[in-house]
Every structure is written in structure tokens, then in C-alpha cells.
Amino acid sequence: MLPKEERAAIIALMRREVVPAVGCTEPIAVALCVTRARELLGYEPEAVELSLSANILKNAMGVGIPGTGMVGLPIAVALGALVGRSDYQLEVLKDIDAEAVARGRRFVEEGRISIQLEEEDPDKLYIRALCRAGGHEGEAVIKGSHTTFVFLRRDDEVRLDKRQVVASTDDYCHCDVALTLRKVYDFATTTSLDELRFILDAKRLNERAADDGLRENYGHQLGKTLCSPLGKGVMGESIFSKILSATSCACDARMAGAMIPVMSNSGSGNQGICATLPVVVFARENHNTEEELIRALTLSNLTAIYIKQSLGALSALCGCVVASTGSSTGITYLMGGSFDQVASSVKNMIANLTGMICDGAKPSCALKLTTGVGTAVMSAMLAIQNKSVTSVEGIIDDDVDKSIHNLTAIGSRGMDITDRYVLDIMTGKNKKNP
Questions:
Q1: β-pair type (136-143, 149-154)
Q2: Rounded to an integer, what distance in angstroms lies between the CA atom of residue 351 and that of residue 394?
Q3: Tell me: the pLDDT tens digits for 212-232?
């Protein structure tokens, strides 16, 4: 068992990074920032000005905003300016009703919102909101992670300024203990259950989201298709098909803007879904004990957090690569796997999924999550038979932690140009040809 101080630091990290969220976390983080700026101002703003990093813009363009029936940033900004509550954090808009949505629509239609690309701050997660009314201003800046405020101002009174000292997304999820996969595994498998039981909240919330996605017709309805007569005819009633269906059902609902909370991981609801539901479904179908489920969920979620430490909160790499690598470790553990076999599952994942681009949050994210968790099951099946991609193949190293850092180096730095091209393509689609 790890020393008490290390366990406490890791538990604090998990409780900080595994939290409920309503809606896609990028537009919701923008709404949170606007809400805080409005609260500083003290009353309804006449105008809202936003400056956003490219990755925030990319992830907020095509996703549904919960409870509104609308897509994209403007309605999220308007609701933050009118009715959001910053103390709710990533559930900032959970109290909205039909009247609030109607007011938000008018706010958007009146042209009171301006949005521009942040050109000066290089951080991939940067949000600056300025609310004006009656000759007064309220300003808030989020940087580094989705809920980290680094600057707060009302008129000439600066109430917080940590812009120069806050960790950037390149130092995301910093904590008092340096993680390795071995340390993640030891923590998950030896810590007392009472200290880990909180992870079952992720099971409860994300199963509810999957149930909602199965009942309603959200997005591309991938989850419903997979468990329809057609889907069953192709894939049958296997554990594999149930894992794919549950994961994609939850993502279908979330990306379409369903007003339901999910348990996020490292600032992403989809990553929380991907790190949780495959493990939950496998444990149920495989008749694992509650203790095994708790430890597998801890292993999966903490593996994802560990990888994000060096990848960053936002990158050109699809988050499902990280989260499904977590779920592969959890599934391998539920199969009875040792640490070496868990490490093999990670190598198998990195050898397969590295390079999957993030082109924003949108309904088709369900397709990518399903690809990720399908690969997770396959990687676990190979690992449990002691079959692993070797160091003579591609970017894989004999050392699993080095393999992880090879992945994150590609995602955080090697794909920067890819990220710019993706945003150019996404924004250029709406421009008329000359």
C-alpha cells in the first residue's frame, strides 16, 4: 500500500478531476466564465465580449447546449450572462428553464455577444469574458483547466490575478505526487475500499445518461442502432456489443444537449463516460464483485488522469484515446490481469489509436468513443494472453510510462499543426467562396 500522504494526494486529485458536469465542458466553461464576470458586474450585462483559445472555439462550435434545443456558444454565453450560477461549477446552467432560454434567445438575437480568437495567450484552454453595463465592467479569465479562474476584476478593482503563476494546460492536473502506471495500479488495487467508494457515483451518473440515450432519439442514435434488431443481428448479445451500445448511448445524449449530468474525467464528460461505462458493463456481464468494480473504475479513471497530466487539458488528440486506454486497464484487471498485463493493454492501445484527431465536440463523437472502447476490449483480450506490441514496433517502448509519454508528446506538440488545420477547415466551411 502507498504511504498515507501519497494516497491522500491521489484521492484529492481524483476528487478534483472526477466531477459532475451538465453539457459539453468547453461551452459550459465559457458559460461559467461569463457568469462570474456578470456576478462581478452585479447586474445583467448590456454586452458580452469573449476572447477564446482555438481549442475552446473548436470544441464549442457543434455541440448541443443542455435544455435549449440549440447548438453552439452564443446561447451558452447568453444564459451565463442572464441566469448562470458560478458556484455550480461545470453544472453552471443546471437551473435554466423555458423562460430563461427564451430570454437567452433574445439576448443572442439582439447582437449583444461578440466572440474573437485569442491571439496573445498561447494556452490551449483560455477564456476571457468581459461584461459591460451602465458604464461598469466585470471581467473574468479562466486558464489551464475548465474551472480555474486566474483573473477577476470589477472596474478598476482587481480581485484576483494569477495569470503569470497558474499552471498551463501543458502542466495540467498537477498534484503533489508524481504518477506512474505502477503507482496508479498499486493505488487502485491496495487502497481501502472506503477511500475509493466515491467512484461509484461515476457509475450511477453515467449509467443514467446511457439509459436516457437509449430511451430518446439523440444525435445519430448510434447506441440505439447497436442494440436494435439490426444491430443485434450483426453483433449479437455479446459483452462487446453491450459495452459499445451503453457508451455510445450516453455520448449520443450528452452531445445532443440532454439536460442530464455525467461524471466527467479531467474536464471532459465524454472522457468520463469512456473511462466508466465499458468497465461497468464488463463487470456486470462478467459477474465481478463490487470490490473488483470499484478497483477497476479507480484504475481506469486514474490512468486517464495520469495520461492527461502530460497531454494537457485540450489537444489535437481525441480524448477517447486517453479515456479508452483507461477503460482497457480496468477491463484487463476485471479479467484477472496482473500489472504486467495491464501495462500490455496500455501499449496495445497506444499502438492502435494514437493520432485520432479531435475535430470538436459534436454528435459524431459517439462514433469515436465507440471506436475507442472497441479497441479497449481488443487490447485487453490480447494483454490477458500476454500478447503485447513490442518496442521494435513504432512508438512503443519497453517501458510503459515512456510509451505513454511518446503518445502525449505526439498529441500535445507533434499535432499542433494538425490542430490549426482542423480549426481552419471547421471555420472555413461557413464562409462563402469568393
A1: antiparallel
A2: 7
A3: 999 999 999 999 999 998 888
Q: Which residues contact 344 (CB under 8 A, 6 or more apart)?
A: 332, 382, 383, 386, 387, 388
| pTM of the full structure | 0.91
Going by C-beta distance under 8 Å and a sequence separation of 6 or more, which residues neighbour residue 217?
224
3 state SS of 418: helix
**The three grid cell numbers given for residue 75, joined into one nine-digit string:** 446561447
Count of H-run helices and E-run strands, the chain: 18, 10
Helical segments of 191-318, H only: 193-196, 200-215, 222-226, 229-235, 239-255, 269-285, 290-311
In angstroms, how far is CA 237 from the centroid of its own chain? 29
Cα separation, 425 vs 412, in Å, equals 20
Residue 27 has pLDDT above 80, yes or no: yes
CA distance between the termini of the chain: 65
pLDDT the model gives residue 194: 96
User: Can you read off the three cell numbers belonging to residue 12?
Assistant: 484529492
70 conformational bin, left if phi > 0, alpha if psi -120 to 50, beta if neither: beta
Question: What value does the mean pLDDT take over residues 13-41?
Answer: 95
| Burial label, 367 (beta-carbon count in 10 A; 0-12, 13-18, 19+) | middle
- Which amino acid is present at 200? L
> How many residues are present in the chain?
434
Q: 176: pLDDT confidence band, cut at 50, 70 and 90?
A: low
pLDDT at 312 over 90: no
pLDDT at residue 434 in the model: 37
